[in-house]
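Q: Please design a sequence for this.
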């Protein structure tokens, strides 16, 4: 069986491994960037789950989405607490 979508937990650009240095990417960001590079060579799509990292706020999530767009992500899927799903954008 082939995987069509790989869901990746993301703990922010500087988090996930206790390395909270502002100038150095954290573990989950490094993994995401590598997976994104590899997925471009296949039919696998990457889905990012933004975890509740320290300091996360509505404003930081907006910045995170801008960051993902710069990386080449073009779809946004929101799953609300009540289970409703909304999509924006797409490939």
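A: Design:
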């Amino acid at each position: 069986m082939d995987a069509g979508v790989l869901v990746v937990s993301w703990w922010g650009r500087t988090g996930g491994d206790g390395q909270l240095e502002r100038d150095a990417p954290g573990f989950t960001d490094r993994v995401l960037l590598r997976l994104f590079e590899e997925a471009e060579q296949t039919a696998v799509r990457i889905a990012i789950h933004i975890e509740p990292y320290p300091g996360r706020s509505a404003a930081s999530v907006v910045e995170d989405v801008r960051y993902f767009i710069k990386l080449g992500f073009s779809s946004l899927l929101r799953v609300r607490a009540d289970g409703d799903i909304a999509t924006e954008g797409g490939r």
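Q: Thanks. Anything notable?
A: The chain has a mean pLDDT of 74. Residues 14 and 26 are 4 Å apart (CA to CA).
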